[in-house]
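Need tokens for this chain, all 240 residues.
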Amino acid sequence: MIQAPKPGSIIVADWHRCKDSKEYFSKILHKKNRKIFGLLESPVMPPHVPVDTVHYKIFLSGKSGVGKSALAAHLAGLKVPGTHYETTGIETTVVYWPAKLKESGRVLFFRFQLWDCGENALRRFDHLLPSCKEKVDAVLFLFSFTDRTSFDDLANQIAKWNESSGSPVVTLVVGTKFDLFMHCDVSEKDVRGFQETWQLPVFRMGCSEDDDRLDLTAPLFNSLAESLWHQDCIIAGHQV
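Here are the structure tokens for all 240 residues:
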């Protein structure tokens, strides 16, 4: 596992709030809501604004019911279903995120293809997990703040992934349903203890429709982009 870079050391933090980012973010937004991109669609910039797109495959890992499909929908600006259903196979969601490199000032569109597969489907069909792991660049380990067992299972999930993964991948942890504090089974003390033990960042996401606001999703997107770009530079042997 490649050690994550210090936040804000590679990508300009909070660039989505800067004036010079508006032209780029306007290509992924429509009336302040996220544009929906299909597998073959991408943001289109004017010819005088050169921008490269980098592609990454992200696998969402977690037990049934933690909110993998809901997280993918939130990040893509899709409507989250009101009732939970088990993902029957593999579902993929495309999300674009513009980011500015701190040292060079170069702007990149990060294309994240989120892979979500139901826990029961993974158990029933042996070929699904290898398909999800093939050429994967990052894995998001999910737990729910309302489900203590999903948090306690994180260590087992991460250990199993590290044992079976042959190539380095970016690893982040996301706690879902953070806004349901009345039903919270995982404390901030628990989260701090996990972070100290595993040296992994933990991001908190709610289940409200308002969670599509850029300020709420930017920390996760920026950390993914920064860690993935850093990983690519390390693998390529370049100085970051």
